[in-house]
Amino acid sequence: MDRRIRVLIGKPGLDGHDRGAKYIARALRDAGMEVIYTGIRQTPLAIADAAIQEDVDFVGLSLLSGAHNHLFPEVARILREKGAGDIVLFGGGVIPEEDIPGLNQAGFKAIFTPGTPASAVVSFIEDEQKNRS
Amino acid sequence: MTPGDSLAGEITRGVVRAVARGLSIVENGAQDAPALLHALFPGVPDHRTIGVTGPPGAGKSTLLDRMITRYRSLGSKVGVIAVDPSSPFTGGALLGDRLRMQTHSTDPGVFIRSMGSRGHLGGLSGATRDAALLLAAAGYDPVFLETVGVGQAEVEIAEVADLTVLVLVPGAGDDVQAMKAGIMEIGDLIVLNKADRPGIEQLEAAVAASLDLAPLGRPRPGVARVSSLTGEGLDELWALMDGLLASIDPVKRRLENTRRTLRGLLTETGTLFAARLLDKEFGTEAHILELISNGVTTPYEVGRKLARAAERMLSGDESKEDRSHRDSG
Lengths: 133, 329
Known about the structure:
The complex is a heterodimer. Chain A is α/β, with parallel strands linked by helices. In chain A, about 45% of the residues lie in helices and about 20% in strands. The longest helix of chain A is centred in the last third of the chain and has 15 residues, at about 120-130. Chain B starts with a helix and ends in a 10-residue tail after the last helix.
């Protein structure tokens, strides 16, 4: 049995700045995970559908445009609606402190703001995975 | 009724989450995998598997995106398994093929699954064949298999797919490259992609010259000059693909696929059996390695003794009615 942690890194909305998303994708790869990167400008539905088809354990969303309060919960809603509410969600990007509780409320276990080392994301995922299995 | 049965039922009905779960079970080589595949196997409809292979950056995923569009326009439900390399050091993988197939990201008639090669060296992952069977059981036809970006010798795809499309691009070497054995021999169809780029004439000439020298008895592969970007040459490619797919005898294909599945299982079972036997006869791998480095034995002698032990075990089997007592003898 060869079980790998599978993570989808998605960029919803119109923001085309994907350095951060790619950096995290690469760091997770180097931590031994299988990372599906969807590319920029994805709709919440496209991200949710991809996450379900890929049977991932985690979905990480990256956004720097400021539309996170709308787009992040939308991904969470669609996943729940399609019976995939067990997938652990996290987010990152330029996200003001005061928005974080709302996103947590919407189902995002963690929000990583600029300056977070990639190792923090890796340990978050590894810890969560232990809780899941 | 085992959990495998109900999951199989959902897969057969095309429930997306069940298909995705089933693929994970098969890919992870989980304990339930054989039972699940056993439940699905009898109901798998006749289907086509189309392999797409070629060097890294040849445009396999982008061409595949076009192929999906084409089969969707014909009303088919399309399945895709796209394999990217896993790191030999960490086991991690960046699976980016999906990125090129965004045209179909919300189309319920398209199922795309990315897989890491997980140490498998033939250009696919160990589970690709079974994963394709599972997608077919869920009603996807054709099922496309995209290999990792290949070098010269990853020819496994030709064993798994009914039709293998080899994608080449200009500027990747001279005519000697086109004459080498291996990957150049497995395409039922050769796509010269990026026809909008310079060097396409030379590539076409080199491939044609190489094919002219092909031994008799093997059908000459069709060649299509294509630009996935502009759409140039795609109609000719579809015509070639249709012709080749139509020429395949479905009964023979099914038999051939089954034979390959059986052989795959043979290898898998053989490896497991050999590992257990090795452990029983000689001890752990670490112990054997130590013996070898101390000059007590060589890997070849271990191999020979292992074969003899297997022989003994098998001939012992025949004389015993009750196999459950085998280990006590």
